[in-house]
Specification:
By secondary structure, the protein is of the alpha+beta class. The protein is built from twelve helices and 20 strands. The strands form four sheets. The protein has an eight-stranded mixed beta sheet. Strands 1, 2, 7, 8, 9, 10 and 20 form a seven-stranded mixed beta sheet that branches. The chain binds flavin-adenine dinucleotide.
């Protein structure tokens, strides 16, 4: 029997386990992960074995040791975005814990890249005049290679001290005589305390666990929007001091925010939940950077029924994909004139698309709100730079960000079922590496105090 079992080895689970190990306590800890060890996480697309997603039963890109943290590892140390952990445990507390996380990352080699800040006073002042806001953060951007190195070292550290069970998908959880039984196909694990840290890949099983313990999921968020590809030099005036920025525009109808800016990056396909979306690749991740700049403009929508949320996003994306991974692309001028961008226009366009996509008209493909949001952000960029953006700017449809439903817990992430905790992205409270990791450190400290 274990004292604490952590289901999921993403950054929330990893940092919880790491924190628990920093004491003399003799707690018996288990991590259960449905995916594989870090070195065994091989995605057929990444190795060039397949051009398309082959829908593996366990997605090695998203699941396995490191979870979704097997990305380019951009740690944003902020309360401005990336989750609502500050609302739960206090903004100052979050920032203190994030400093600790950065120290831990550096212990494992994170100090090979510099910490930088995106804060820009002049831009903040101008943003206020344009009725928008600039969200700022300190950033430790590891990049894929360093991120992989750190996750591998953390794995070696944890595995030398605690039990980690891979390839174990927890199908159901029940409780007998104050002991949780975690049932996988092959085995039952027994534990006094269970921490669910299943990220956004827990899916229906996560909802089933909640149902069993009568835990009602609250609202669920889905972000959709377009990815923009433009000339990098057009943003020089607003980016020269901060490398990147996050612009947010809000009125009674729309809340639009820029995500994931990639100077000299490329637009790439993102495969998730059987859907294909337009994502961005940072220039650090490619041998031949582009001359373009890409980012997404996303708009959140909230649903009180989990299935409705999924159906809404899936129906929009599937109708674009048309079963063949289709992504739509449109020139900015054509969007304004509500006309189709043709193949011929794309060939002679001054901004060359870095992702081969089908020319079309976004008005025929995505709900109007996502176009209006994109236009508001573009208008804001024009105000901030004092220049019109190039008519050859490209807009790709569609990018999406999925969230788990918000789960009601106390301030220590404990659900109404005593001893059952939800942590990181599956709590619906965090949506980023730094906040997921911070939730893990926070809960670890609480357990040790308890
Ligand atoms: C493409 C992409 C890129 C991103 N890039 C960044 C970035 O650069 N910076 C940033 O701040 N955020 C980024 N994010 C968000 C960030 O990755 C997540 O917020 C963070 O990883 C969440 O951590 P987590 O521990 O809560 O969950 P995850 O990292 O999702 O880990 C959950 C783990 O639980 C396991 N699991 C699920 N169900 C079960 C089960 N039933 N039994 C056993 N194990 C189970 C999964 O296999 C997985 O390994 C990105 C997200 C995506 C989709």
């Amino acid at each position: 029997m274990y004292d604490i079992t952590i289901v999921g080895s993403g950054f929330s689970g990893i940092f919880l386990a790491y924190t628990l190990l920093q004491s003399e306590s003799k707690l018996k800890i288990l991590i259960i992960e449905k995916g594989k060890k870090f070195i065994d996480r091989i995605c057929p697309i990444e190795t060039g074995m397949s051009e398309k997603c082959v829908h593996c039963t366990i997605c090695n890109k998203a699941q396995g040791f490191g979870g979704m943290g097997r990305s380019e590892g951009k740690f944003n140390y902020t309360n401005d975005f990336g989750g609502k952990l500050g609302e739960k445990i206090g903004n100052e507390n979050v920032i203190d814990i994030m400093e600790e996380i950065d120290k831990i990352l550096c212990l494992f080699g994170g100090d090979k890249v510099k910490l930088y800040s995106t804060s820009n006073e002049e831009l903040n002042r101008r943003a206020k005049e344009s009725n928008c806001s600039i969200l700022s953060t300190k950033v430790r951007h590891l990049g894929t290679t360093l991120s992989y190195e750190i996750i591998s070292k953390m794995y070696l550290y944890l595995k030398s001290k605690i039990n980690i069970q891979f390839d174990a998908d927890i199908i159901s959880i029940n409780k007998n005589n104050c002991v949780f039984n975690l049932n996988s196909k092959e085995k039952v694990f027994y534990s006094k305390v269970v921490v669910l840290a299943t990220g956004i890949s827990g899916g229906d099983k996560f909802l089933d666990y909640c149902k069993y313990f009568n835990i009602e999921p609250c609202r669920r968020r889905i972000d959709l929007g377009v990815r923009v590809e433009m000339n990098e030099y057009e943003l020089e005036t607003i980016l020269k001091k901060s490398f990147e920025t996050k612009i947010s525009w809000k009125d009674n109808e729309i809340e639009a925010t820029t995500y994931c800016m990639n100077p000299k990056g490329k637009v790439i396909k993102k495969y998730q939940e059987g859907l294909v979306m337009a994502d961005g690749q940072n220039c650090l991740e490619t041998d031949n950077p582009s001359c373009n700049f890409n980012f997404s403009i996303l708009i959140p929508k909230y649903f009180y029924n989990c299935n409705q949320a999924k159906e809404y996003a899936t129906s929009i994306i599937k109708s674009i994909n048309k079963g063949k991974g289709r992504i739509i692309i449109q020139r900015f001028e054509d969007l304004i004139k509500n006309r189709v961008t043709t193949k011929e226009q794309l060939i002679k366009n001054s901004i060359h698309p870095t992702l081969e996509s089908e020319g079309g008209n976004l008005y025929n493909e995505i709900p109007r709100i996502y176009i209006n949001g994109a236009l508001k952000i573009i208008e804001t960029i024009e105000k901030l730079t004092d220049k019109k953006i190039c008519k050859d700017t490209l807009l790709y449809g569609i990018d999406a960000k999925f969230y788990e439903p918000e789960i009601t817990t106390n301030e220590h992430f404990e659900t109404k079922e005593e001893g059952l905790y939800v942590l990181g992205d599956c709590s619906g409270t965090t949506y980023s590496l730094a906040q997921a990791a911070a939730s893990g450190v926070y809960l670890g400290r609480y357990f040790l105090k308890k």
